[in-house]
Amino acid sequence: MTMRQRAARAEITTRAKGLGVFGASVLLALGTAITWVQLGPRDPQTLANSTESLTIRDVDGGSDYFKGFPNTLPVDPSYFPIGVWKESLTDPADAPKDRAVLINTYVELTGNSDISFATNVGSFALTEEPLAGAVGRVLSDEVDMWARGGNADWTGSWPGTGEICSPANLGCGFTVQRELLKALPAQALVYSNYGKGVTFWEGDENAATFVNDFQAFVSADNYWFTDPYICGPSEGGAVLAGGQELEPKKCRLAANYGWTVSRLRSLIQPAMSKPVWAFVEVGHPFTENQAPTITGPEIRAAVWSSLIHGARGIIYFNHSFGGDCQTQHILRDACGEAVRPWVTEVNRQITGLAPVLNAPFLDGAVAHAPGVDAAVKVHGGDLYVFAGSAQADPQEAQFTLGCLPGTAVTATVLDEDRTVAISNGAFKDTFADGNAVHLYRIDGAAAACTP
């Protein structure tokens, strides 16, 4: 995180503490039109008792999306982006440490980094500065929060250095993005990360402008497990509790990371035309300690929720400003040993399943109760059902794949050394809590289910 980015977060956090949350009236006073958006079901394929016909859906942007850019990310099906945010590479041993955790992509580097340390081990880097060896450029971070949506003049100031917009009561975030783009090559692979403006505070029109107009792919960082303010009535409560405070068991929930991905995907025009990546914290991104520090099982569940909802890359926020492990390098330092094995294991799953994650979805294939989220993938003649809990309480969930024949078959539960029986297309499984995730492979089932 750059100094200006940390200043931005500090300024926003200070304002939030003074108000409790960003109230809608305060945002309106700043010139931002608010329309709270309830997205409804988390994804079309999760509807119980769906009568939707089976539809093959390619991953957002298409599997070869990045091919159209020079010096770009790979389009090899075996590559799935597993990134880390604003990490430093100052010693030749740094990149191998990240590779040991199966990090393959750097999303921004510190200014004192040597990018060759990444490329020497076969990793890729997107950078803010024009570095030789970079595969793309980072345009901005959370400009929707510190400059807000709008076309007012940008003074050139950054958070903490003076008034950002002129007039000060109007947003100038669109102007900031346009000005930053002027410094980049016309064909560059450009990425931006957004925050609570796009996900909570901006109306759909402004949010869609941010997501669609300035970059080739996007992410948003909502830290549902650790943010001390995200459960408030103008943040998570606005979209998931009708403007009321969102109770902890519905707020501190892995499924909400999937909600963030779906929020961004719902804004993209044309629909599904560009990739959305997901942010997951691996420590404590805030100095305040009112909220807990994320745990290993929560990280794994948040990652899989994001993937189930269509994320085409994962970025870990590797900095911790509070809690017991205050460091910029949680995935390297000794104090991160509690979560590092969990991150390594979920990254191993992602790496092994990369061809499946890059393969098409089969929409309309599975019906289930609303207590879980699920997606179906088709690869190599097999069906894969990825399912994660969408509630904190334990449950037994039933899944029905109406396209399967009536004869009994089995599904292998990946990495759990067990199978589940499928009868007449239906099977049940137990989800112990809100962090439960099960990954199923049904061998040879694609032929019966592919339209």
Care to describe what's here?
- This protein is α/β, with parallel strands linked by helices and 451 residues long.
- It contains 15 helices and 20 strands.
- The protein has two domains: 3-30 and 78-357, Aldolase class I (TIM Barrel); 46-58 and 361-449, Immunoglobulin-like (Sandwich), CATH 2.60.40.
- It has helices spanning 3-19, 24-29, 94-100, 116-119, 143-146, 173-181, 196-201, 204-213, 236-240, 248-251, 255-267, 296-308, 340-352, 354-357, 446-449, and strands spanning 55-57, 82-87, 105-109, 124-127, 136-141, 153-154, 165-166, 190-194, 217-220, 278-281, 314-317, 361-363, 367-368, 372-379, 382-389, 395-400, 409-413, 418-422, 426-431, 437-442.
- An eight-stranded parallel beta sheet has the order 9-8-5-4-3-2-11-10. A five-stranded antiparallel beta sheet has the order 14-15-20-17-18.
- The longest helix is centred in the N-terminal third of the chain and has 17 residues, at 3-19.
- The protein is globular.
